[in-house]
Each structure stands twice: as structure tokens, then as C-alpha cells.
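Quick start: what a row looks like.
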Amino acid sequence: MSRLIYVLNGPNLNLLGKRQPEIYGADTLVDVERDVRAVAVEFGLDVRFHQSNREYELIDWIHEARETAAGIIINPGAFTHTSVAILDALNAFDGFVLECHISNVHKRESFRHHSYVSLRADGVMAGFGVQGYALCVRRMAHLIDTKKK
């Protein structure tokens, strides 16, 4: 089985460390990628790490992952609450899907309480700051390893 995982980041996550640090913290997306790659190495996982403000690019990467990846970790940003298209793409992916949010979306505005992505996700991480990404990588490694048995 493939040991490749995609880590996909949606709109405005390129502004981590600059945008609303009281909610999202001071770490940048570059910091997140560095941490994700470090944990992935511990578990023998390969990573493709992407960010886009464009819905279609996220969908294209999900389609690409269908051919090569064992799992997807996705922080869809605001697309979480609006994108049936991303849900449809994830439903066409046979691997594991973990949804990751830096903030606890359930303590925020009511419109953030609904996630289309959660309808497909095998697990959801929310409110653990950027450390949630590393936790998702650990969980993904466990899911991949368990499936191999």
C-alpha cells in the first residue's frame, strides 16, 4: 500500500501567522509544513503538501490523490461549510480522509458548525491549533498501518 498522504489547505491558510493570530496563532503555513514532514518521516510517510484559495485546485489535488495516495488530511478553510464539490471529490477517493481545523469551529459562529467534509471524513481534528496537523499525521499512519494487516 502507498505511504503517500496529501495535506491540503484551503483559502486564507496562506495567511497563517498574519491573519487573526488570536484565533490561529503565530505559526505560518511553512512552519506547519515543516512539522508535518518531520512527523511523517517518523512514520515512513511521504507527503504532498498544498494550499490554494481556489476550490477547483483542491478538487484537482483530491482527484490526483485517487491514483497515488493512501490518505488525505484536509483543512478546507471556509470551503468546509460551503463546498458540496469538495465533498463529492472526497467521496470518489477510496483512501482515508481526516479533516483538520486549527480553531475549535464549534466555539465560533454558528455557520461554522456545519461541515460538508465531515460527511466523508474518517475523523475530525479541531481546536488543537496547528499541532492538530501533526496529530492527524500520527492518526493517518495508524490507519494506514492497520489497513495493511
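That is the whole record. The chain has one domain: 4-148. The two ends are 11 Å apart (CA to CA).
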